[in-house]
Write the structure tokens for this entry.
Amino acid sequence: MKDKLIIFDTTLRDGEQSPGASMTKDEKLRIAKALERMKVDIIEAGFPIASPGDFESVKAVAEMVQDSTVCGLARALDGDIDRAGEALKSANSPRIHTFIATSPIHMKTKLMMEPDQVVEQAVRSVKRARNLIEDVEFSAEDAGRSDPDFLCRIIEAVIDAGATTVNIPDTVGYNLPDRFGALVAELMERVPNSDKAIFSVHCHNDLGLAVGNSLSAVLHGARQVECTINGLGERAGNTSLEEIVMAVKTRQDIFSCDTELDTTEIMNCSRLVANVTGFPVQPNKAIVGANAFAHESGIHQDGVIKNRETYEIMRAEDVGWNANRMVMGKHSGRNAFKTRLKELGVEFEREEDLNDAFKRFKDLADKKHEIFDEDLQALVTETNLAGEEEWVKLIGLKVNSETGETSIADITLSVNGVEETGSAAGSGPVDATFMAIEAVVESGCDLQLYSVSNITSGTSSQGEVAVRLEFEDRVVNGQGADTDIIAASAKAYINALNTMMTDKNKKHPQVAGKI
């Protein structure tokens, strides 16, 4: 009988540390539902001490999720741990995840603590967490650059204090697979009480080795992997959940463990996270990229026609490609619309939200003959499910663009319920549109990113635009979708402005702790 490999998803916490990937409470709940439906073992819902918004998000996920363990992150500080315990009070299966840095550079320059002090604080924090919740995970931040002797010492101490899971993070993505796997094996062999805790890994992708390092650790005895959907995360990202799960599933001849995930839900989760965060998946991304199962070479096509296994080691259907795909159109009714969204993990608590989304669906159906799941997810992202008042609304847009001439945009916005107009010139239609918006709102925000991707194929596809704005210590992402790419751009910019104004006090997750 094979061991179980525990999948710890941190999309809602570490994934949110990607600049601009900050999520609202409603968006976190949507993603948490999708993760639970995929049978993810542990969902790290956030960092409760980071902000009131993060606390409320963790609390809401803890109240909603029934089948997965819900986890909250806490530095090895009394206030962090107590706040996490409070947020997780309603969870069916709660976990507190506490951490402290263990590498020489972190202890000396960041913590300004001696090794003995670090061990003492780690032990005290684990004991405090255990007094609140039975399931406690301890992480040795920057373990990948820590002294193995010191790691053995602190790991033995925290297990004695009650840690049920010990996490070995490669916080800066510094390690190589053979060395990282050997480190995990060494720790499990040398720590006397290692059999009393599950060993976990949390790898970053700075050298493109997060998945390789994690798989090497699994081969050497780790039985929990911390990962994110689409490999989302700060800097170069985290270990990709879909790649870990499918690598273990595909190579059962090598791995003495397996996950219990429903892999057919992978594509749905991937599209949802990409849509919510505005971080599109690159076409050649393993498992979930548009080209992951595409064959253009004549030799490859001929081989696949004769026998799929000549060039495919997985079935596209096993990860959710083209599974449960319903094409909807302008003749689809309200019940079919509601039912399909429920299957995608979206349920409306308020009737007015359903009505708003259905109206958007009908408007889209007049422009686009076939509407796919990706279109529906983009449509729901635009719907104001939280019922919050939108500071800025788009009323009308007119853009004049001609080859060799300066583009001019005229825009009409509702600002705090008052209709205002603006006009501006720009180097192109999008630039002119953004300048016209700023002529009205004068936000003072700096545009950090503008990206466009198609939601489905064909010239009638909706264009999905992601905009990243920065103002002082805030970084927010905005999304917009429309068959008219200029309108989608305006929607994305306005969405980012509204996000900036709705949660003025929320700092970027990178301001708080990280592992």
About this structure: Residues 295-302, 508-512 have pLDDT under 50 and may be disordered.
